[in-house]
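Please produce the structure of this protein holding flavin-adenine dinucleotide.
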Amino acid sequence: MEATHDVLVVGAGCAGMRAAIEAHDAGADVALVSKIHPTRSHSGAAEGGINAALGNASEDNPEIHAYDTVKGSDYLGDQDAIEILCNEAPDDVYQLEHWGAIFSRTDDGRIAQRPFGAAGAPRTAYAADITGHVLIQVLYEQVVKRQLQVYEEFFAWKLVVNDDRCQGVICWDLLDGGLKTIGAKTVIVATGGAGRLYTGTTNAYACTGDGISMALRVGVPLKDMEMMQFHPTTLSPTGVLITEGCRGEGAYLLNSEGERFLKRYAPNAMELASRDVISRAEQTEIDEGRGVDGNVLLDLRHLGAERIHERLHGTRELSMVFAGVDPIHEPIPVRPGAHYHMGGVDTDVWGQTLLTGLYAAGECACVSVHGANRLGGNALMETITYGKRSGAHAADWALSHTTVEVPSSVETDAERELRALLDREEGERPWAIRDELAATMHENFGVFRREAEMERQGEIVAALRERYERVVVEDKGSVFNNDLTQALELGFLLELADCMVVCGLARKESRGAHARPYDYPDRDDESYMRHTMVTWEDGGPRLGWKPVTVTKWQPQERTY
Ligand SMILES: Cc1cc2nc3c(=O)[nH]c(=O)nc-3n(C[C@H](O)[C@H](O)[C@H](O)COP(=O)(O)OP(=O)(O)OC[C@H]3O[C@@H](n4cnc5c(N)ncnc54)[C@H](O)[C@@H]3O)c2cc1C
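Below is the modeled complex.
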């Protein structure tokens, strides 16, 4: 064993760093593991902002925020978890401000808030269109200030389970090579999303669902895995995100006829309806021949150059670099792209999983506050509030328990498995399987879902998993062996895809991101107002269900 700590946080995005800070401040010895430098985590790419009912732009309170979130979730979110998020959000945002987050301001100096999709009030605090960048720098400063150890460029591969509890992590050291085991009394998985399951995605290359799959492999159930959110405005073909902040500032969506088509889908909220609603509207326009080269158009021109320069500077730059379009003069071509995984490791409201000592927070977790559809600005808030709560609980548990033990057999087994992979001289390279997986998931498990396509996708994933058994890692070296880590990531992705398809087939209704307009166009609360749960048994996913927690809000029809 390399070292032991009270609390080991895997992942150094907003959730991981916020958890580590809280655990440290509660008195625990804390370390972080990250496969990339912390400030390069995907959180840093967040543009639009973070939701808290500060009430700075209009009348607002946590209860309205909670109601909007419940409705946005299409009544699949757990209402106790949502209430906690919305109640704690304002103080958590002020905490970030006190640590130095430079939020954009109102004229009288308060934190400014912009309108975001499906929010009853302008509730999204922001730092121009680089909110995630600002938050991740601020959190990293706090990590450095506390001198927390960061095992940087360590690739976490396996969770160590001993004595029925999680007691550490086995990592591949990217810089020097070799497996390193780090023991811990509690482990918090905060490894982010899995958008790389899809060809067109806003997610960074690192978003390969590692922690979700690691938890699955040690018997922990995953929740709502079919719920992948498609963001309505991603640049074609790269998938680079064009922030919802554009529509918050008043941008229009147009079809090839120059029509603001949302008037036929969401006549009241128009461009500020929720993401699932807009993605479906766009896909329908494109499918029915009113798209422009497979896209629709996002028009900012009427906002004027000054406002675009001031509030949407980064967006303009992205459009010019990646699409050759200057939004001051031309509309931006956009289409739906895979953006956010609502599903993930099942946790309670303290981030605890079913395995003692194992916690999950951030996008890899499913508490669940987003249910079947996440509202823009709520994910960053979840990383902060639930990162904090997981850190507090994990520290508390660690401080009242003393031992950490990793049997040597666990390490030798891992060594053997890795050797077998590296010693293989012939076989298929991982990238071909990865590209096929991402392309077919996009095709068969995208914005709209059909029974036959999902079944077909199940067969495709099974065949890809078989091919994966014979995958070959050509680089046998020990320094920055990305060939190896990409092969391991692909193993994670394939299992998650398998789980998603099984859950998608089982949910015979349309709810939030899971849209089946051709066979089950309606939401069916009687049968399906419950979470899909999946565990890994005998080499494959096994489906179960769990009730949704309802506190105040009974399901209603969802219109915008
Ligand atoms: C382009 C984009 C824009 C967004 N904009 C917004 C927004 O404006 N508002 C909002 O609320 N939400 C937004 N979101 C969503 C939100 O940013 C994310 O859900 C959130 O930041 C995820 O944070 P996280 O800490 O859970 O994970 P991440 O920030 O993805 O961090 C994951 C960490 O885990 C580490 N890791 C992963 N696997 C391993 C492994 N095997 N070993 C070791 N370390 C590992 C990585 O190194 C990284 O440090 C956006 C998302 C995207 C993609």
